[in-house]
């Protein structure tokens, strides 16, 4: 009997110790640090708040806790006129680390001018950050970064799906804006990759369900956002990206390779719209002569052989292109940034073994952020920072986010949208991003509020030093353009 009691006592003590050492995130917390940086040659003092804020259920019980980092310039007292930028990355399942420490924030990675990792790992001051013109919050959705579910009874579908993601994040943003006293501030959403799906839906949800109105949305390397296009259009639209990539790798015919990229792409885009898409739609109705003529031009613009173009019925899958373009050199090209090259275990096959661009980026980001968040932001936790967290299965049904964004623009005359795309991005290619704009505004009446910008880099265009400066300046100008003059009514003339 005594032996049983001692065993029971040991088990209880062990349970207590394990509970005390269990890695958990605090539901609510905030660590504030003070800093100064130099942006465009001028000193900018700011505070950085690294903390957590709950997600509540309908009964007011915390069901999750989201990690965020909030940067506020401290030498400006009027918050009512100070823009607030709310930043998300994508995945789904990706943390906000990417734009946080490589794009718009006050620090950037220690990488070379083309985005490749350097040692020692770390961060340095970002002389192009938009913190001079706007306060910025970076948000990690559930199971990304340090954000976690805190109620194990909650249904995972509450968080993991296109529309559920938008709903709970809209509630969270509403709480944050209220707590920070920023309802009067001009507000902006910025999202990258799947984050564009997220912010396109968020701006509509916040406008229609929380009566929170925004001045702008920035779409960095956007997805198709639920905009219908069909396989003939979807696949054909990749050709301009193929041409850009082939040009970069000197794989085009000399007649094109000698030209600048800006001279080539309009020609390829016109062929895609006026000849390729109609031909692919016709399919078996094409005559042999018509098919041969289209394949000849496709091969000329893509750097591939006419033989493989014909074998794929004029529709080259992206996986095959990444494998095929430099196959004769034993190399593959990157998915998210096709400037990057890799090599596979074997030269055969129809798709690369891995994406050399993403492998390179993970190499640079992970160790740098681990140091930055703990040593500079002073946020201490034993949790793993999930660059890519467990969020599957993800419910992708009923996506209408691109159309929802267009509807929000029609309802809010103040709302502007800017898209930023890298010409060498094969994950969310630039020409399909242009197509989004055309379908969001079929009447052409919102053209003055839709802006598209292209860069000679990939999915994360800001990793290239030249584009880090240019793309941040484009956001800065976008914010200035979409700021409203005092007492200017929101109405159509």
From TrEMBL:
Gene3D superfamilies listed in its UniProt record: alpha/beta hydrolase
Swiss-Prot/TrEMBL GO biological process terms: proteolysis
Keyword Lipid biosynthesis in annotation: no
Alphabetized UniProt keyword annotations: Carboxypeptidase, Glycoprotein, Hydrolase, Protease, Signal
InterPro entries (UniProt xref): AB_hydrolase_fold, Peptidase_S10
A Pfam family: Peptidase_S10
Signal sequence, renumbered to the chain: 1-19
Name of the protein described by the UniProt record: Carboxypeptidase
